[in-house]
Design brief:
- This protein has a single domain, classed as Alpha-Beta Barrel (TIM Barrel).
- Helix content is 28%, strand content 19%.
- It is built from eight helices and twelve strands.
- A twelve-stranded mixed beta sheet has the order 7-8-9-6-5-4-3-2-1-10-11-12.
- Helix 1 packs parallel to helix 2 and helix 3 packs parallel to helix 5.
- The radius of gyration is 19 Å and the shape is globular.
Length: 313
Amino acid sequence: MKDKYNRKVEYIRLSLTDKCNFRCNYCMNEEVKFMQDNELLTLKEIEVLVKTLKDLNFKKIRLTGGEPTLRMDIVDIAKIIKKYFGTFSITTNGSLMYYLADELKKNGLNEVNFSLDSLNSENFKNITKRDELQNVLNGLEKSLKIGLKVKLNTVIQKRNLSEIFDLIEFAAKLNLPIRFIELMPIGKNYNDSDFISEKTLKDKINEKYNLIPVKIKFGSGPSNYYLIKELNSYIGFISAITHNFCSSCNKIRISADGKIYPCLAFDYHISIKDVILEEDKLKEKIKFAIFEKPKRHYLSKLTKKTPMHKMGG
């Protein structure tokens, strides 16, 4: 399907829960209030939704959160998606992947994005407020061992700028692409003093390595990739603030309680909860949400109140 600006929208980010077992400094604090379980889409509702998305010719589903692996019935959800789409991907903090990777792969998971903001246990704890680095690394190792495609995501900020070479070299050693993501002013926890621009980051990397632009893509996301010839590895930059990529945006988000967010940068949403078991009405709402997708974001000018974990990251 296409929106009013003729962009092809065929990628869904489906949130399973707004809950997370981390408290990353840029995302949420300890006092955060989560949805009640009875507010979340049920398995039956998810099946109707997934079937409808397939009928509307969506090509890809990525499961998100919060932290999607906290959803107790995630394997049952995987089975539903496999039934209609065959495969799916997931974005995760990785802390539970050691225990779930086998079952999820068996039921259609083929691609995992691991959030990894630090390799230093103290700094990891400083950023996430949790002592979980080893569990994340165990989950990463397990995912690679069983043959899942893996990418690393690092939200770059002043707290981890000194670690960029460690992260780049860690990814290169595992032959994995790593993407550096600019902080976005979304939710109450954003702090402008933490922001590091793509240019600042590239200048830092160029002190040690040469970045060679390449047209290669890993997945369906907006990252622009570069080859580090010295390491024979790839790094990407997702820079929504300083390098707007709205003209090529191909996705919509659906929250865990059944709200479509046509754009991550706006609080505007369309609820589908009231029609989610009525396929014809559901299709019309999804089509409407796509048609009304904004032309671009204004994150540098407008304050967005809905936190990232409430809308599917």
